[in-house]
Amino acid sequence: MSRKHQYLPEMSDRRLLPPMLRLVRRAGRVSGQGEAISSPSILIISVEGLGDTILTVPLLRAARRACPGARITLVTASGSVALFRHCPYVDEVVGMDRAACFRPLPRVFSVVRLLRAARFVRTELGNRHFDIAINADPWTNVVGAAFLAWYSGAAQRICAIPASPAVSPRCAVNRAEEELYSTVLTLDGHRIRYSVEMARHLWSGEVSADLELWPSADDEAWALERLAGSGEPLIALGIGGSVPKRIWPAAAFVAMARELAERMPCRFAVLGSPQEAAKAEGIAAAIGARAFSLCREDVNRSLAVLGHAHAYFGNDTGSMHLAAARGVACLVTSCHPRGAPSGHLNAEQTYHPWNVRYRYLRPAAASEACRAGCVAEAPHCILGIGPAEAAGELAAFLSAKHDLVVGRKTADEIEVSPGPAGQADARLGEG
């Protein structure tokens, strides 16, 4: 199923879901048949992607500060587990293989998700009973998080969804699954606001919107050794991504880096997922001795290297949020054309780098159809950003000659908008 249609279940699925939810409610949620836990137990679900998971940090921190004796379990994508190896706010991190657990099958999309959610709670979470279940991702209809929350046995089950249909299309199945939550917050603005507002709803007190990550002392020592002997500015290149039209071509990264190296001395650390290692190594080899790939290294070693970077340049993806969490200024390639609406899914307002200086390079629309937002599946509008232009912008960015947007906001500045978009839809769930 293509990304374009992943939110549109089969018609038979829409007919199956309502009676299926009635059956789930009648049968009741799982009870604590596994190991008994005397202290409060909190389940936080964030499996949408690396960027979303990083932006969940304020929620994790608020949960620990509000409930210091709680047992906090984070369910995240398998590729993000290592990121939380040294996190002081969680007791347990459980990896989920999204493809294996919730890949939809033809015409039985939600049936399969419900059954697999029950199996995941039974086999991976030990059939434990939780007191609070939080879906930290704003996309409630993709990976069966509503079913995980329900089967957790939690009396409080909370999620937050975008108010704008352009950001999150809500089909009939999606709306039906939301009935499995006891509380649904409808929000807008930056993705980090979802973490802050859910924490505010659950616990009183101040909520910090700051990001943090936790490379170990050994990771930091490894980074110092890897970077030894060079005082040249280090540029982190984010070459990957999960949405094809948001990915700048590999050849463009190579040409931009060569152009920049002619203008100023610098080094390049190429970032990406392990699945992108071959691509990253090809880019590093083509740039030359000034570049090296981090894709085969542990993510915490990459974090340690990022702590020494002077800037991030690349795609709007998880690597960008890693860099921002380490305090690195970001110059980001975007597929969203100049002059296109800010409420679009591809616009930077929802996922821009948090707490750091940043700037987006936006192309002209590649066709009339793309004036309101790039409609292509493959790289299209983003190809309008030329390597020479990007090198010039990056050189100026490093020299701080541009007026840069500052992404930093405190939690108190993330205010709930008046009206329906900022109100909690508190639903009376069963028990």
Name the descriptors.
14 helices, Rossmann fold, single chain, seven-stranded mixed beta sheet, alpha/beta, 431 residues, 15% strand, 2 domains
CATH classification, class level of the largest domain: Alpha Beta
Described by the principal axes of the CA atoms, the overall outline is: globular
- What's the name of the CATH homologous superfamily of the largest domain? Glycogen Phosphorylase B
Radius of gyration, Cα only, in angstroms? Answer: 22 Å
Averaged pLDDT, please?
Answer: 81
Per the CATH scheme, the topology name of the largest domain is Rossmann fold
**Order of secondary-structure elements:** HEHHEEHHEHEHEHHEHEHEHEHEEHEE
Terminal residue distance: 36 Å
Biggest sheet features = 7 strands, mixed
Strand order of the largest sheet: 3-2-1-4-5-6-14
Q: Which residues sit in consecutive blocks of at least 5 with pLDDT less than 50?
A: 1-12, 30-38, 104-108, 401-431
Total strand segments: 14
Q: Which range does the strand content fall in?
A: 15-25%
| Number of discrete domains | 2
SSE-based structural type: alpha/beta
Identify the CATH architecture of the largest domain: 3-Layer(aba) Sandwich
